[in-house]
Design a protein that fits this description.
With about 290 residues, the chain is an alpha+beta fold. It folds into 3 domains: about 5-45 and about 55-70, no CATH class; about 75-190, Alpha-Beta Plaits; about 200-285, PucR C-terminal helix-turn-helix domain (Arc Repressor Mutant, subunit A, Orthogonal Bundle), CATH 1.10.10.2840. Helices cover about 55% and strands about 10% of the residues. It has a 5-stranded mixed beta sheet with strand order 2-3-1-4-5, with helices on both faces. A hairpin with a 4-residue loop joins strand 2 and strand 3. Helix 1 (about 5-15) packs parallel to helix 2 (about 30-45), helix 9 crosses helix 13 (about 270-285) and helix 10 packs across helix 11 (about 240-245).
């Protein structure tokens, strides 16, 4: 008998305790495929949810993904968006049920652990950023719990979802360090921070020593941090930044001039703003 078929029968025996035999005359081209499907069917007692969890965690081979997708009638090429929801506390059954009610029948809602839920959404006409904020508001108002949501770009192949999961995990980790007040983060909007996250501590400290000598960036007070962050969010526009901060334009200019005296960086200039942004992120990531 073919060694592959014999190996599959052995694995089935280990999984089920059943001793199965196939006569040579009953072996055909599809025998191996059917045995693989049978092995997978006893491999995941939780069924469809466990398939999605194992897929996101990168625990399935491409062959297993194909077989299980076929078993659960899942379209592998459907366009999907991954939302990863991180909760401050343990997720209650009420919250899980609520999340299932606001998604469509084609979406998947998966409990990954006590504090993380993944939503694999088939995007419709609505903007994904808008949908994420609506989800955040609903979690806050109806479940009355704190959460942060990360979402990635749409993928056209189910096998790309593990990468989306890694991106969302990294986005939540970075947002926790740099934007703890945010409720929703988009992976592609943290590309700059993700790049700097890969910089070693020695190189980061060397950059800070060379570019910002007048002040410890990590020692900047919250008011100035908020001012700098808002300035970047408003593309260095003084009027828009002052409006967003609910302060007079002259007050904002005074803060920026004070910062310039301390650091030598004029945040109204693009090059200095880039240096400041880089130094600010590196100091937050490396605690210096």
């Amino acid at each position: 008998m073919d060694k592959e078929i014999q190996d599959l029968l052995t694995k089935l025996n280990i999984k089920t305790g059943l001793h199965l035999e196939i006569s040579e005359q009953n072996v055909d081209d599809d025998t191996s495929l059917r045995l693989q499907e049978l092995l997978l069917s006893v491999k995941d007692h939780a069924g469809r949810d466990l398939f999605w969890q194992n897929l996101l965690l990168g625990q399935l081979s491409r062959e297993e993904t194909v077989l299980l997708s076929r078993r659960f009638h899942i379209d592998m090429s459907a366009r999907r968006v991954l939302f990863l929801v991180a909760f401050l506390d343990t997720v209650s059954d009420v919250t899980r049920s609520m999340l299932k009610t606001i998604t469509t029948g084609r979406d998947e809602v998966l409990s990954l652990d006590e504090r993380h839920i993944a939503i694999i959404k088939i995007p419709g006409d609505s903007d994904m950023d808008t949908w994420a904020y609506s989800l955040s508001d609903m979690i806050s108002s109806e479940a009355m719990v704190s959460s942060m949501i990360a979402y990635d770009d749409p993928v056209e192949d189910i096998n790309m979802l593990p990468d989306s999961y890694k991106n969302c995990e990294a986005a939540l980790r970075l947002a926790g360090l740099l934007h703890a007040d945010k409720k929703v983060v988009s992976c592609d909007r943290l590309a700059f921070e993700k790049l700097l996250y890969s910089v070693g501590q020695e190189d980061a400290l060397d950059f800070l020593r060379r570019t910002v000598t007048g002040i410890d960036m990590s020692a900047i007070d919250n008011e100035m941090k908020n001012t700098i962050t808002t300035l970047f969010e408003n593309e260095l526009n003084i009027a828009d930044t002052a409006k967003a901060l609910f302060i007079h334009r002259n007050t904002l200019v005074y803060r920026l001039e004070k910062f310039q005296k301390q650091t030598g960086l004029d945040l109204k200039k693009f090059d200095d703003a880039v240096i400041c942004k880089t130094a600010f992120v590196l100091s937050e990531l490396h605690g210096k």
